[in-house]
Amino acid sequence: WDSFNYTRQGGSGQIANVDDAKEFEHTSNALGVIGVTTEQQGHIHALLAALLHIGNIDITGASERVGAAIATDDTACARAVELLQIDSTLFCKWLTKRQIVTRSEKIVSNMTRAQALVVRDSVAKFLYAHLFDWIVRAINQALTCGDSSAPTASFIGVLDIYGFEHFEHNSFEQFCINYANEKLQQNFNRHVFKLEQEEYQREQLENWTFVDFQDNQPCIDLIEGKLGILALLDEECRLQQGTDANFAEKMYKQFAAPGPKPKPDAPAAFFQKPRFGACEFTVRHYAHDVAYEAEGFIEKNKDTVPEEIQNVLKASQGSLLPQLLSDPSVSASDSAPPPAQPAAGRLSVRAARKPTLGAVFKHSLASLMDTIEATESHYIRCIKPNEAKQAWAFDAPMVLAQLRACGVLETIRISCAGYPSRLPIPDFIHRYRILLPGPMEPLTPESSLDEYRALAGRILAVAFDQQPDRSQVGLTKVFFRAGMLALVEKQRVERLNVAATTIQALVRCFQQRQRFLREKRAVLLLQTLARGVLARRQLRMLRDTSAATSIQALARGFLARALFRTTIRGIVALQAQVRGTQARARFLDMSKEHAAIQIQRTVRGYQARKQCKHELRLITRMQGRLRQRLAKRLVEKRKEEARSAAHFQEVTYQLEGKLMALTRQLDESQTRSAQLAEKLRQAHVESQQLRDAQSATIASATAELSARVEQLQKDKAASDERCAELTQNMTD
User: Fold this and answer.
1) Cα→Cα distances 109→98, 305, 612, Å
2) Is 297 helix (H, G, I), strand (E, B) or coil?
3) Pairing of strands 59-60, 289-293
């Protein structure tokens, strides 16, 4: 890289963490994918190598009288001619000489070294531009389906331009680049600021404040206006004796003439004449004030490769170079506006003027802006973190200046204050009406716009929990703050997931229930069959067991009855005697217990009544003392209040009110007393009935107990007689 003039001007030919061999391999593979053959790639590499050697051609020339010259043994020139396969003599000749066509003859004159260097670099740029356009055309043909010549209905374009340039020495190249950036910045402003805010106003949004931004239209008018810098430059280029100094002087007269200060929005306000320097001027661009050196503007604006050199290049023996130069669809000069036709009735012998580079650039830029206006643009701002291109180095002032220059700060302001996401109201309702809880009446095509907007407002209120600053409903669209549409979409997905989960649960529940019922029926059938077999087996066993048991029972019953008869007689006698003794003792205990209970009940009732009366006397005495104290305080207070006549009137009203309240309370108390008296009478009746019932119960129990005692006495007498008989029998 350091062997060629064009590549060593950057100061370094290596980039950290970039392998040139691998990148070259990837590029070759990519060219092969789009249909560029290996032979064509070889021709491309040869052409690029020739461009590098053209940059190394050494042009000498001590003075303007001697003119520029190229040494016959110049290695770079010989190598470039060999790679391009063109005539070496003609190429060297027209690099240093130019041909002027007059009415009657053609004059060949020498060029200065500076002019020859400009022609040399123009040839390199001319070939590189045609090669670039040829590769782009090959890519488009490879990516186009069908007829590539047919007009494209839709496409995706990527525009990658140079950033804003501001160097120590700025020339025509930086002027064109900054001019393009001005146009793109204007489109960006219009797209982001003007159209955005106009739509907010058209939709009549409430929570919106107009954001002011810097409009660079006066700067663009300064450059491309009818009497702008490009027009003055083209005018000077048409003159045979046009110089950079005359061009600068015309700009000073046009934009920096002495007189009143121009208006802030006038194009002249964006032009400054330097205090020192005769061929310099400053343009106030949107990003920064840039001082340009007018020297070289004329030659670089002409920047047209002479026809003689073009003819030499077209006569190349190679296969790629004539193809590049013969295809008008990729020619940079063909995009220029057509030359003005002479007025009717006049005879013009002047040759058709070739468009200048500034005119070509302006026309190409206008075409680009038309394309951008006809498409939906999206912007990617690339920020340079530092000048040294070092990793992990962040120059905050430099980044801030770039953000301010690119209009990113204003973009952030309008994004924070604006609504970058939006949806038409019908589409919004159709997609997000699921967020509303419960059923909803569907909207019909006959529904009014207010009904649609009201429904959209309800959906937003549910989605954002009554936070109106996150969204707004316009006349025809719903606007969202940054990130809010994703939040609504998340809620919609969650609601759909819940609904889908519920439906899946019900379906799976139904399926599992059907499966369970089928299995249950099968299990019940198997259990029925198995239980039937087991029941029949058990029935046979039970029959056999029952027969054996019956036989055993008869035998054992006979024996047991005999033994039982003998034993039962003795046991019954003994039990009768014992039970008689126990019954008498139990009767005596019950009599004592009943008497004790009666005594305890009487004593406890007396004690409880006595304690209750004592507590009531104490409570009444305490309440009397407390009420006496409160009454004394109230009397003292009322004595103090009664001293004023006005207060006496107020107290009178209060006493009347209290008297009415006491009268009402007395009536209510009498009513309650009557009710309580009725309840007390009913309670006496019920208690009397309860006492009668208890007395009857006690009497019946006493009679029954007496009867049982008599019966026990009779049984005892019978038992005694039975025992005497048994004793007599045993004795016998």
Assistant:
1) 6, 16, 145
2) helix
3) unpaired
For residues 688 and 681, what is the distance between their CA atoms, to the nearest angstrom? 11
Beta partners for 70? 59
pLDDT tens per residue, range 381-431: 788 888 877 888 889 988 887 777 676 776 676 666 677 778 888 888 888
In angstroms, rounded to a whole number, what is the distance separating the alpha carbons of residues 411 and 20?
38
How many angstroms separate the Cα of 39 from the Cα of each of 21, 27, 28, 609, 617?
A: 19, 15, 12, 129, 129
8 Å CB contact between 418 and 200: yes
List residues bridging with 110 in a β-sheet.
97
Query: Which residues lie closer than 8 Å to 377 by C-beta, 6 or more apart?
Result: 187, 191
φ/ψ region of 483 (left if φ > 0, alpha if ψ in -120 to 50, else beta) reads left
Contacts of residue 218, defined as CB under 8 A and 6 or more positions apart, other chains included, come to 265, 266, 267, 269, 270
Please report, for residues 51, 244, 245, the alpha-carbon distance to residue 112 in angstroms, rounded to integers and kept in the order given: 22, 15, 18
The predicted model scores a pTM of 0.54
Flag residues of the chain having pLDDT under 70: 62-66, 145-153, 162, 194, 208-214, 277, 303-304, 327-353, 405, 407, 410-411, 413-417, 439-446, 466-469, 641-642, 644-648, 651, 730, 732
84 class by beta-carbon count within 10 Å (0-12 exposed, 13-18 middle, 19+ buried): buried
Give the residue from 10, 235, 6, 7 showing the smallest Cα distance to 117. Answer: 6
> How many other CB atoms sit within 10 Å of the CB of residue 83?
21
Sequence length of the chain is 732
From CA 185, how far away is CA 234, in angstroms rounded?
25
On whether the CB atoms of residues 254 and 232 are closer than 8 A, the answer is yes
Is residue 423 helix, strand or coil? strand
3-class secondary-structure state, position 49: helix
CA 389 – CA 680 distance, rounded (Å): 107
At how many degrees (to 10) do helices 113-143 and 307-314 cross? 50
Q: Can you tell me the distance from the alpha carbon of 213 to that of 216, in angstroms, rounded to the nearest whole number?
A: 10
> If we measure between CA atoms, which residue out of 353, 351, 355 comes closest to residue 102?
351
CA 517 to CA 72: how far, in whole Å? 105
Separation of alpha carbons 175 and 232, rounded Å: 14
H or E, element range at 59? strand 59-60
- Running DSSP on this structure, what letter comes out for residue 389? -
Asked if residues 283 and 271 have their Cβ atoms less than 8 Å apart, the reply is yes
Angle between helices 484-641 and 425-432 (to 10 degrees): 80
pLDDT digit string, tens, across residues 438-448: 766 666 666 77
**Please, which residues bridge with residue 292 across strands?**
170, 281
Contact (Cβ atoms closer than 8 angstroms) between residue 286 and residue 214: yes
